[in-house]
Write a structure and sequence with these properties.
Enzyme class: transferase
Strand content: 5-15%
EC number: 2.1.1.-
Organism: Camelina sativa (False flax)
Shape: elongated
Distance between the termini: 49 Å
Protein name: rRNA adenine N(6)-methyltransferase
Strand order of the largest sheet: 4-3-2-5-6-9-7
Helix content: 40-55%
Order of helices and strands: HHHHEHEHEHEEHEHHEEEHHHHH
CATH topology of the largest domain: Rossmann fold
Structural class: alpha/beta
Keywords: Methyltransferase, RNA-binding, rRNA processing, S-adenosyl-L-methionine, Transferase
CATH class of the largest domain: Alpha Beta
Bound molecules: S-adenosylmethionine
Number of strands: 9
Radius of gyration: 26 Å
Number of domains: 3
Length: 379
């Protein structure tokens, strides 16, 4: 039975792809994949065989570095689609469709699906599967790295994404230029817990503060690692991210750099964080660059030693020391005057953080290095 179906589905594809196609076909038959003894035994036998090793070596096997863990439980796939609130008129963006287990369900529920997939082998399998099921007209496949893809217009995102790109991908969605209703994403459980943390919680963190500035995040369900083939090392969760209708008027790069500074050690008070010599020197140089001049004022004795070596020798070192010392007093003075010195970043609301950033900027103190571009949310 399986062999016959394999031949039907694979067509001209290399027969050494049999294990992958087995996974595809099991989904098409709408039976729930068995991860229990029978299936596990087949997989172990297959993976242990010379053929499998060769395939893995040739890059034809499911590839962990690309996060190729296929979700195989039909009940869970259905639950994801139900929770994602798809309307029949929607264009759904799917990131990493793989062999199409989720794609088939999305095609049934929506008007169109745009799927972005990096792996050419997956694209071939997906294209054939979708066309065999009469959905070819509804699917657009973009074979590309999603992080380098300019998205066409879409209404919703629904995806089981590769976990190694979770942070830049969520950043691209919530801070990108596309307008969409929501993104229902299957993520590593630990990542989703960090995303769900709220201001005031001890685990409130930079990822959550950045995403929640512009979106709401709702827990949908946990998914065990046993539901994937091959099983990843970690469990997963589904969350729904809904962009806020009204977003704060703030320079995004400045905000991200500010939260990187504040949440560098979220358990320290802001006062002790902004007294650190390294931090002061960093801010001094960024702010001086942005203001087009030095931020400090006069030379004199200072409390910092610096490693700066230039033609001016010791006099310049002293100058830098003094600049830094005066600059530190300005920063800490601002925190003190506005009641932030003894506060911890994880206990501050978005309103308070935005207020603090605007106080800094008004005082000519800036956080963003205009020479660096990458948008990262939590590193
Ligand atoms: C976790 S699998 C999900 C497969 C399928 N959606 C499922 O649920 O069974 C992730 C998929 O994303 C693809 N992928 C990995 N990195 C990618 C990238 N940077 N851009 C687009 N697709 C990527 C992988 O090839 C793989 O097919």
């Amino acid at each position: 039975m399986i062999l016959r179906l394999k031949n039907q589905t694979l067509g001209k594809l290399n027969p050494t792809r049999s294990y992958l196609s087995y996974l595809v076909l099991r989904r098409d038959s709408h039976s729930q994949i068995r991860t229990k003894p029978d299936h596990d035994r087949r997989r172990r036998e297959y993976e242990g065989s010379e053929k499998s090793k060769k395939k893995e070596h040739d890059g034809l096997f499911l590839c962990k570095s690309k996060g190729q863990h296929l979700l195989t439980n039909t009940r869970i796939l259905d639950a994801i689609v139900r929770s994602s609130d798809i309307r029949p008129t929607d264009t759904v963006l799917e990131i990493g469709p793989g062999t199409g287990n989720l794609t088939m369900k999305l095609l049934e529920a929506s008007q169109n699906v745009v799927a972005v997939e990096l792996d050419k082998r997956m694209v071939e399998i997906l294209r054939k599967r979708v066309s065999d099921n009469g959905f070819a007209d509804k699917l657009t496949i973009i074979q590309k790295d999603v992080l380098k893809t300019e998205f066409p217009q879409f209404d919703l995102v629904v995806a089981n994404i590769p976990y190694n790109i979770s942070s830049p991908l969520v950043a691209k969605l919530v801070y990108g230029s596309n307008t969409f209703r929501s993104a229902t994403l299957l993520l590593q459980k630990e990542f989703s817990r960090r995303l769900l943390a709220n201001s005031g919680d001890s685990d409130f963190n930079r990822l959550a503060v950045n995403v929640k500035l512009v979106a709401d995040v709702k827990f949908v369900m946990d998914v065990s690692k046993r539901e994937f083939v091959p099983p990843p090392k970690v469990d997963s969760s589904v969350v729904m991210i809904t962009p806020k209708e009204v977003k704060p008027d703030v320079n995004v790069q400045e905000w991200l750099a500010f939260t990187r500074t504040c949440f560098g050690n979220k358990n320290k008070t802001l006062g002790s964080m902004f007294r650190q010599k390294k931090k002061v020197m960093e801010l001094l140089s960024l702010s001086a660059g942005r203001n087009g001049s030095k931020v400090g004022m006069e030379c004199g004795d200072g409390e910092f030693d610096t490693d700066v070596e230039d033609e001016g020798g010791r006099d310049n070192v002293l100058c830098m020391d003094t600049d830094a010392s005066m600059f530190k007093e300005r920063v800490v003075g601002l925190l003190r005057t506005h009641g932030f010195e003894e506060k911890r970043p994880s206990k501050l609301s978005h309103g308070e953080l935005l207020h603090l950033l605007s106080l800094f900027n008004q005082a000519g103190i800036f956080f963003h290095d205009i020479t660096s571009l990458p948008m990262d949310l939590h590193e």
